[in-house]
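ok so I'm stuck.
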Amino acid sequence: MKGFVSAGFLVVRRFQRAAHMDAALLPAEITTMSECLADAVPVPGHWARDPWFADGVAASAAVRDGHELIEAAAPADLVSDLRGEMGEWTGATAFLSDAGPPSLAPLGFELVGFDGGTWHSRLCLDGLTGDVDDATGVRSGRHGLIADEADARRAAAWLTASGLGDPKVLRWYPVRLGS
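replied:
not stuck anymore, here's the structure
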C-alpha cells in the first residue's frame, strides 16, 4: 500500500486470552494497543494514566518487568481520518504527534476504533473476532494480529460497514503493531 506513519509507542504487558474468548480463534497471549485489555505503563508526568509515548527512547526507558515496548503505525493514507476521528481529545496527545516512519519491526495488524478517549480493539467487544472471521475469512495469527495488510483493511472495512461495534466504535482501522 502507501507506507506507514508512526502513531506512538506503548509499554504494555501481553494480554492473556480471557476464558470467554475462543481458543480456536486466538492464541493464549495477545499483543494489543487497546487500553481496555492491555496493562499499559503511563507516561511519567502525564495526567490520568496517558499511556502514549511520542518518543521510542522514553518509552524504552519505561519498560518494566513483564512489559514490552510496542509501536502503533497508521497507514499513511488513513492518518487524516484517524486524526479526525480523535478530534480534540487531549487524552491521546502522543498518538500521531510525530509523522515519522515506524522504527520497530512489524508484528501484524490490529483492528481498532476510537471512542471516549481510548482505542478499542475488536477483541474488546465480545464476539467481533468470530464475526469478522466468519464474514471475511480473515484470521488472527501470531499475537492475535492479522498478518496481511490487505486482509486487515478488508476486515476493517467489513466491520465498519456491519455496524456491529456501534455504539462504542463506528469506524474501524487497520493499525500495524511493531515490537
